[in-house]
Amino acid sequence: MQVQEYKKIMIDKDQIVPVAERMRKKEIWLTMIHGFVNKEGQMEICYDYQVEPVIESYHVVGEMTVPSIGDIYDVAAQWPEREINELFGVTFEGLDVSKRLFLPEDMLETQGKGQIMVTPLSELRRLNREEAEET
Amino acid sequence: MSYILPIGPYHPALEEPVHARLYTEGEVIQDAEVFVGYNHRGIEKLATERNAIQTLVLVERVCGICSHSHAFTYAMAVENINQLEVPKRGAYIRVITAELERLHSHFLWLGIACHIIGHDSMFMHIWDERELVMDLLEKLSGNRVNYAMVTIGGARRDVDDDLRREILDACDKLKAPLDRIVEIALTDKTIAMRTKGVGVLTREDAVRLGALGPHARASGVNIDVRKDSPYSCYEDFDFDVPVVDSGDVFARVVVRALECYESIKILRQALENLPEGPINLGTKLPKIKEGMAVTRHEAPRGQLTYMVVGDNAFNNYRVIAHVPSYKNTPTVPHMLRGNTVADAGLIIASIDPCFSCLDR
After folding, report:
1. Contacts of B305 in chain A (CB under 8 A)
2. Comparing B125 with A117, which gets the higher pLDDT?
3. pLDDT digits (tens, 9 = 90+) for B130-146
4. Does A45 share its domain with A110?
5. Domain membership flag for residue B22
6. Whole-number Å distance between alpha carbons of B215 and B324
7. What is the span of the domain harbouring residue B325?
8. pLDDT tens digits along B297-339
9. A44 & A71 share domain
10. Which residues are B155's β-sheet partners?
11. A61: domain CATH number?
């Protein structure tokens, strides 16, 4: 039985754009951009490319401001970048974040200053409850 | 005269919340914007507070149409991290459920597409055939919507000999109606007039915007995870990937209709060669080992991707779900430009969008 391969590659933020340009030139699909806060408390942003049959995942660690690859991969990059911006507060230089993608506008004030994924659910519930009591 | 026309968030055809804003000049759409997020339930966040078995239940609720795809892909990610090898029979049962799911999803979409263009007799005919598939899914899993056929390490329910024969008979029974549906889809004037040349997405745009699944294949892009990066037991089956070049709504109808034949082909092979043996590893509640895995599955609407991060605990450290509609929905404004307002509903629906999946 075959298992899909996954290759993790660590890069600096300066390499994000050259890697994206190289992949785009070869017509390689950007599977997704996603992120999480690792155990050391650092932001880890991952750029996954479909270099069939392998997923090459380029990780950038410890950066809260990175260049956008929206002009290279268009909306395929812009939407996930906007999502990471909403959930973790990461700034993508050159990305238009004037409109919200998934979360409502007032989410920013009540649920962890745009860092939904790094605030425990119990804490988010407490903030919501406190806000409801105040109003 | 130019004006802005809002559609949704309650769309009369899709019954799912999405808001499109059309910037029009007379009847022609000059530009468009799509707004999502009306159904954001924080599934990824909720998954971080659940163990692997609870997460299977949770991710199945992401979508009512492709629920098995979510559980299937998530389970593969956990199995990759924990280095579990699913027994062959379990992998076959997963594929059988996935292909039945693709059949019912494509029948559903073809029916809705006919309903939108006003061909209601065709809509009823297609949905009548879909019931046959739904009955099989109900017999297989006990449910019509959330099948719960997947567990970590294999399948949760077996396929006995009676059911195996029944699904094989159904594959024969579906052939004639499917031939009729394809014949009507290819020759009917109403369908041709409403769909040919409408909502075109060129191959260049499909590649640039990262379109996936039948939506991309209707624009001449040969992309299918089952072939490009085989998983589970898809390498055991002989099937084709239908690709059409014209990139319009008609091409999307044709691709999905032809894919139904391929699903039946896979179903037949899986059922005729169903291996003997256990259906799962008997794993109860696994700890998710330290590590991460990305897994992909060709869901009915396109490639579904899950990423799971484990830290040697029962609960997930992080779960990320990227659904096909995440890539296909942003292509909608490109397809709307230059078309008339009357076709907007059909063009939005032509990607077979799932906003419940997209919002998560």
Report:
1. 31-32, 48
2. B125
3. 998 999 999 888 888 88
4. no
5. no
6. 10
7. 40-336+343-354
8. 999 998 999 999 888 888 888 899 989 888 888 888 888 888 8
9. yes
10. B150
11. 3.30.460.80
Residues 189-218 of B with CB under 8 A from A: 207-210, 212
B42 Cβ under 8 Å from any chain A Cβ: yes
Interface test with A, best of B74, B280, B294, B308 (most A CBs within 10 A): B294
Pair (A112, A85) in one structural domain = no
Looking at the structure, do residues A78 and A123 belong to the same domain, yes or no? no
Residue B307 within any structural domain of the chain: yes
Cβ atoms < 10 Å from Cβ of B304: 29
Which of A10, A21, A31 to probe the B interface (max B CBs under 10 A)? A31
Q: Is the pLDDT of residue B348 over 90?
A: no
Asked if B293 contacts A6 with a C-beta cutoff of 8 angstroms, the reply is yes
Q: Which residue has the tokens 């899986």?
A: B270
Residue of A90, A84, A87, A132 lying closest to A107 (CA atoms): A87
B235 touches chain A (CB under 8 A): yes
Of B40, B86, B228, the CB nearest to A53: B228
A94 and A107 in one domain? no
Full domain range(s) for residue A129: 103-135
User: Once rounded to an integer, what is the mean pLDDT over residues B202-209?
Assistant: 86
- pLDDT class for B57, splitting at 50, 70, 90? very high
CATH number of the domain to which B228 belongs: 1.10.645.10
pLDDT tens figures, B246-274: 889 899 988 998 999 999 999 999 999 98
> Is residue A16 located within the same domain as residue A66?
yes
Residues B47 and B62: their CA atoms lie apart, in Å, by: 11
- Adjacent-strand bridge partners of B29: B24
Closest CA to B266 of B306, B224, B295: B224
Q: Which of B40, B318, B327 has the CB atom closest to A102's CB atom? A: B40
Q: For chain A, how many structural domains are there in total? A: 2
pLDDT at A106: 65
Contact yes or no for A52 and B228 at CB 8 A: yes
The answer to whether B256 and B217 have CB atoms below 8 angstroms apart is no
